[in-house]
Amino acid sequence: MGTDLTYAQLVAALDWQIELGADEAICDAPIDRYGLEGPAPKADAWTKRDAPVPAGTHDNLAAVPAGTEPADLPDPVTEARQTAMAAPDLEALRAALSAYQHCELRKGARNLVFADGRPEARLMIIGEAPGAEEDRVGKPFVGRAGQLLDRMFAAIGMRRDAPDVQTAIYITNILPWRPPQNRDPKPEEVAMMRPFVERHVDLVDPDLLILMGNHACQALLGKRGITRLRGTWTEALGRPALPMFHPAYLLRNPVMKREAWSDLLDVHARLSG
C-alpha cells in the first residue's frame, strides 16, 4: 500500500514513536546485553537492520541457562521482603514502599495509595488496587466503589473515621499504585507487593481481615472465584479472613447486594463476640 507522506512527515512520525518510548531498533539477531562489558548501549533509533551483532553474542546466549539472572542484579521480591521486614512501624513501611524502585507501576501513578482509617481498628479491609480517583487523592476506596463501601459498613455501625476502635475500620490495597487503565494486577506486581502487605498486616495486627474481590483472594489465599469463596470464613496471614464481593462488582451487579449484606452481618456478629 502506497503512502503520500513526505520525508519530513515520515521523520516526524518516527520522532513521535521515539517520544512514546519506541527508541530501540529491532535487529535480525538478539543481543545478549548481559554479556556486553560495561553499560548496555542503547540502540539509536536510526540503527539499520543489518547492523553487525557483537562478536560472541550467540556463544554468550548459549552459555547462559534459560531463566538465569546475573548475580549482581537484586531479586525484586527478596529485596521487597527484606525492606518490608525492616520497617518498625507504619510510617517507616510507607517510606520503604515509596522508595521501592522495582515496580514499574510507580512511574505512571500520581500518588502512592497507602491506607486510610484507624490503624488501631479491629477490622482491616484489603482491596485490589487504586482507581483513578484514589490515584488522584492518594487514599484507597474514595471513588464510587469507596462510597458504596462506606455505606455498607455504616449499615453495621462501622466507619473509617470512627473514634472508637471497636467500630473503626482500616483499609489498604494489594497494590499501592494504580495500574494503567485500571487493568488487572500482574502476577509479578503482586509478588513484589505481597511482602509489604504482609508487614502491613503484622504492624496493624487486626482481629479480622476482609478480602475484597478476586485479586485480594488470589494474592493472600492463592484462590480465585469470589462467588464461591465469599461468605465462608478462612485464614489469611494467620488471621480469620472473610472474602467479600468488591464494591465495584456490586455496582455492576446490584442483585448481589443481598449476599454482601449477609456477609456484613456475619462480620458484625464476629466482632460482637
Structure description:
The chain is built from 12 helices and 6 strands. It has helices spanning 7-19, 57-63, 76-85, 90-99, 105-108, 132-137, 144-154, 187-204, 214-221, 226-229, 247-252, 257-272, and strands at 116-117, 123-127, 169-173, 208-212, 234-236, 239-244. A 6-stranded mixed beta sheet has the order 1-3-2-4-6-5, sandwiched between helices. The termini are far apart. Residues 43-51 and 53-64 have low confidence and may be disordered.
**C-alpha geometry:** globular
Strand content: 5-15%
How far apart are the first and last residues' alpha carbons, in Å? 73 Å
Low-confidence stretches: 43-51, 53-64
Q: What is the overall number of helices?
A: 12
CATH class wording of the largest domain? Alpha Beta
Q: Give the strand order, joined by hyphens, for the main sheet.
A: 1-3-2-4-6-5
CATH homologous group name of the largest domain: Uracil-DNA glycosylase-like domain
Number of strands: 6
Count of the domains: 2
Find the structural class using helix and strand composition.
alpha/beta
CATH topology of the largest domain: Uracil-DNA Glycosylase, subunit E
Radius of gyration: 24 Å
